[in-house]
Automatic annotation (TrEMBL):
PANTHER family tied to this protein: GAMMA-GLUTAMYLPUTRESCINE SYNTHETASE (PTHR43785), TYPE-1 GLUTAMINE SYNTHETASE 2 (PTHR43785:SF12)
GO molecular function: glutamine synthetase activity
UniProt family annotation: Belongs to the glutamine synthetase family.
Location of the GS catalytic domain: 105-435
Protein source organism: Mycolicibacterium chlorophenolicum
Gene Ontology biological-process annotations: glutamine biosynthetic process
Name by which UniProt lists this protein: Putative glutamine synthetase 2
EC number: 6.3.1.2
Pfam family of the protein (one): Gln-synt_C
InterPro entries for the chain: Gln_synt_N_sf (IPR036651), Gln_synth/guanido_kin_cat_dom (IPR014746), Gln_synth_cat_dom (IPR008146)
Top-rank taxon: Bacteria
Record keywords, A-Z: Ligase
Top EC group: ligase
Length: 435
């Protein structure tokens, strides 16, 4: 919207947010009159912001302690009105001299966006957000029988959904679809594809818009991977497409499902690093409760056409797919920092292209019934963190600094929540990722 419109929009305060390695979005605010300072010099934050934990603990590391200072800086052109009197923009972490901070995940994703452009590639990403509607006290929103995708279950919440759509449009959030989902009180919205950083920004904006619209209707929104033990889990799927001067990499070729050589190598690259990056994509204390066969969570390291049990679901270029062929990484959940998840996803695809990796055999049906062997994934939190901490690929893709800090944050969760019964963990973390 640009800052000259702030007064006309009735904006009194401006928020700039960053999302930490625990996946929690945190913000600072200034009066609208101080917007230029927010953009020019930024607002000060402790380096410990990057290693805040889901329960407000801090996972100090050998390089992150009580000393030092960073700055959140925003671009006024990114401002969106998210509530009456409040505008928001995504922030980037910088040091006191204006240089990107080593743990700024938005900067890391921007580097991969530039790296793709340097290779002559145009990249588009899009997010899907699954979430669970809750009552004002954090319990189930309804006790009625649930009809997955039902017209009744959606029309019962029509006032909220209309408010959500109206607020999203005002905020410039490109919502393509919204519907009640399979799980009880579950909702999903799909966002239009965009460049990688803009797509991750849109995920954060969507979480804010969802949460604030719900609050106006006496509801709360949970982005926990599993809000209630035994209930359907929430994913945070990302879609990725790649094109070069000759057209899309994921269609128009003579490879499997029409893949060109670069597209096949890109999918192979994503599959190749899955064991190393599970701790990034789904590394919270509650994530493993979702990553189970039969949950459509993509818990198997394979790919397949429209296969919802595969970690990488391939969507072909057909008349029913106006955005063209793309790959969907299904095992990402909402506890992941969306900038870092997108960076790992895109970085792995580029790594596969650079190495001309061979695409494994497609699994076109349920992996559990296919009889085709697949690489095991370290799904338990401790196993996932051990794999990531010792992975050369993770260090290459994410930087050693980010890996060390992410592991510290998630190991704090292991210590704090790891011995709790599943129901207690779900209760403790139900609102941890709510905006």
């Amino acid at each position: 919207m640009g800052h000259p419109d702030l007064r006309a929009e009735g904006v009194a305060i401006v928020a700039g947010s960053v999302t930490d390695l625990a996946g929690v979005t945190r913000a600072k605010y200034v009066p609208a009159s101080r917007l230029d300072a927010f953009a020019r010099s930024g607002m000060g934050v402790s380096p410990s912001w990057s290693v805040f934990c889901v329960d407000s603990g801090i996972a100090f590391t050998p390089t992150i302690g009580v000393a030092g200072d960073l700055r959140i800086r925003i671009d006024p052109d990114d401002l969106r009105v998210v509530e009456h009197g409040v505008a928001w923009a995504p922030g980037s972490l910088n040091d006191q001299y204006g240089r990107p901070a080593p743990l700024c995940t938005r900067t890391l994703l921007a580097r991969y966006e530039r790296a793709a452009a340097d290779r002559g590639l145009d990249v588009r990403m899009g997010g899907e957000l699954e979430c669970t509607m809750l009552s004002a006290d954090g319990g189930p929103a309804t006790t009625d029988a649930w009809s997955p995708y039902g017209i009744r279950t959606s029309l019962d919440r029509s006032a909220f959904l209309v408010d959500l759509a109206t607020t999203a449009e005002r905020a410039g959030l490109p919502v393509e679809q919204l519907h009640t989902e399979y799980g009880h009180d579950q909702l999903e919205i799909s966002l239009a594809p965009d460049t990688p950083v803009a797509a991750a920004d849109a995920v954060i904006l969507a979480r804010i818009v969802l949460s604030r619209a719900a609050a106006r209707h006496g509801l709360r929104i949970s982005f926990s991977p599993v809000p209630f033990e035994g209930a359907a889990g929430n994913g945070a799927h990302l879609h990725l497409s790649l094109s070069d001067g000759d057209g899309p990499l994921l269609s128009g070729g003579d490879g499997p499902r029409g893949l060109r050589a670069g597209g096949a190598a890109a999918i192979a690259g994503v599959l190749d690093t899955l064991p190393d990056l599970i701790g990034l994509y789904a590394g919270s204390a509650v994530s493993a409760l979702r990553l189970k066969p039969g949950n459509w969570a993509g818990a198997t390291a394979c790919w397949g056409l429209e296969n919802r049990e595969a970690a990488v679901r391939f969507i072909a270029a057909t008349p029913g797919n106006p955005h063209g062929a793309n790959m969907e990484l299904k095992l990402i959940d909402p506890s992941a920092n969306p900038y870092l998840a997108a960076a790992g996803f895109l970085g792995s695809a580029l790594r596969g292209i650079d190495r001309s990796l061979d695409l494994p055999e497609e699994i076109p049906e349920n992996p559990a019934q296919s009889g085709v062997p697949t690489r095991p994934l370290p799904l338990a939190q401790r196993d996932a963190l051990d794999a990531m901490e010792t992975s050369a690929a993770a260090a290459e893709l994410l930087t050693p600094d980010i890996v060390a800090a992410l592991v510290a944050v998630r190991r704090y969760e292991c210590t704090t929540f790891g011995d709790m019964p599943p129901a207690q963990i779900c209760d403790a973390l139900r609102l941890a990722w709510t905006c």
